[in-house]
Amino acid sequence: MKIDGKLSTPLSTDVSGDVRSGKPGAGGKADAGAGSGESVSVQISSLAEQLRAIQARLASGEVVDAAKVAEIRQAIAEGRFQVNPDAIAERLLQTVRELLEGYRKA
């Protein structure tokens, strides 16, 4: 697996579609009734805002620290890379806690 800091597929924020049926590709029309003059209100959740911020960050540059990847690659090649299962478990739990906190706030 090659890690080059680029996404294999672009992320899209296209949300056009038929609001009433949920079907995509209706030309982005979101009217409640043809010519009825009614408007549709859309509210973006905080999770969607977080996703938008992540997408912007990913689109703006490097996704990974190339120097750190090169350092780890060299350590593996030289046989001096050691896995610390306690550190991995602690970081995994920390990530889960952060995700749960974000979910609870949303």
Residue windows where pLDDT falls under 50 for at least 5 positions: 12-23, 25-32
**C-alpha end-to-end distance:** 35 Å
Which descriptor suits the 3D outline? elongated
* Helix-strand category: mainly alpha
Mean pLDDT rating: 75
What is the number of strand segments? Answer: 0
Number of helices: 3
- Nearest-angstrom radius of gyration? 22 Å
Give the strand content.
under 5%
Helical proportion, percent range: 40-55%
How many strands, which pairing sense, and closed or not: the largest β-sheet?
none
SSE sequence, one letter per element: HHH
Which short descriptors sum up this protein?
mainly alpha, 45% helix, single chain, 3 helices
Can you walk me through this structure?
The structure is a single chain. The chain is an all-alpha fold. It has a domain at 46-105. It contains three helices and no strands. It has helices at 46-59, 66-78, 85-105. The longest helix has 21 residues, at 85-105. The protein is elongated, with a radius of gyration of 22 Å.
Summarize the structure.
With 106 residues, this protein is mostly helical. It has helices at 46-59, 66-78, 85-105.
Protein topology:
Layout: H1 46-59, H2 66-78, H3 85-105
